Amino acid sequence: MSIVRDDGVLGGEPRIDGTRIGVRHIVGRIVDGEQSPASVADNLEISLAAVHEALSYYEDNTEEIRALEAESRAAFDRIDGLEPKPNDQSAGDEREACHEGMVSSGVTMTEDDIDDVLYGDSD
């Protein structure tokens, strides 16, 4: 396995080839979540070698990953400031559930993706 980037997957963030598992997701579980690499590999059903490859990528590209994390946090902050659309009383609850689910799973989304989740596909 290798670390790849594809604009059509995870918004172009580095990820394990053949998966939608981002480097940030793995690093977050180990660094912030205090899980062992073996536990992360088991939970995500990937090889321990893939986890170590993601950690190696992080070590070699720490500033890039930190910038992606800052960008993601800024997007969440913008979401938190959104007001529900008229006649949509549940949007606030949906926004919170979306936010919590994305944070806990390490999902990366664009603002358009978030609007689609909260308000339906606008295309």
TrEMBL record:
This is DUF433 domain-containing protein. Residues 77-99 have a biased composition (Basic and acidic residues). Residues 110-123 have a biased composition (Acidic residues). Pfam families: DUF433 (PF04255). InterPro entries: DUF433, Homeodomain-like_sf, WH-like_DNA-bd_sf. PANTHER family: SLR0770 PROTEIN (PTHR34849:SF1), SSL5025 PROTEIN (PTHR34849). Residues 77-123 are annotated as: Disordered.
